[in-house]
Specification:
Blueprint: H1 2-24, E1 32-43, H2 46-49, E2 53-54, E3 60-73, E4 79-89, E5 102-109, E6 112-123, E7 131-140
Antiparallel strand pairs: 1-3, 1-7, 2-3, 3-6, 4-5, 4-7
Length: about 150
């Protein structure tokens, strides 16, 4: 009889812990998609463009541009650390940023529609105008990087 009492107590305790861990478990932070639209670009102001070079082994001259557009957060919460992805081509349809689709990030995207800017450097030998395609972003409902 004492054996069954201890067994029932153990089963009750395990069930109680399982129930509490299910109730108290924090929600998982999933990526929140951000719609990007009205994407265009403009020349960097002179103070940002001065001495621009592209990444790589040698210092290659580059043109500085600011990609501008609108970001739409369809949720009721601010989205943080939204990574921006997209493709940028030159006038000959050659990729401007080889093997790279992550272009930068937006620190905070409040609910609704807001403006965003992103600085990019393009090798000076690539012909203009640039073609901006497949832009999108996604971020988190709470800050994850510090």
């Amino acid at each position: 009889m004492q054996y069954y009492s201890k067994l029932m107590q153990l089963i009750f305790t395990v069930c109680l812990f399982a129930l509490l861990s299910w109730v108290i478990t924090p929600t998982a932070e999933a990526l929140t998609p951000i719609k990007l639209f009205d994407i265009s670009y403009k020349d960097c102001p002179p103070e940002l463009a001065q001495g621009a070079v592209t990444s790589g082994g040698s210092a290659t001259a580059a043109n500085c541009f600011i990609v501008i557009g609108k970001a739409e957060n369809g949720t009721y919460k601010t989205v943080y650390d939204a990574d921006i992805y997209g493709r940028i081509y030159d006038a000959n349809n050659d990729s401007v940023l080889q093997n790279r689709t992550r272009l930068g990030s937006i620190a905070e995207v409040p609910p609704g529609i807001s403006d965003f800017e992103l600085r990019i450097s393009v090798p000076a030998n690539q012909p203009l105008p640039l073609k901006l395609k497949q832009f999108k972003a996604s971020g988190f409902s709470s800050q994850v990087r510090r």
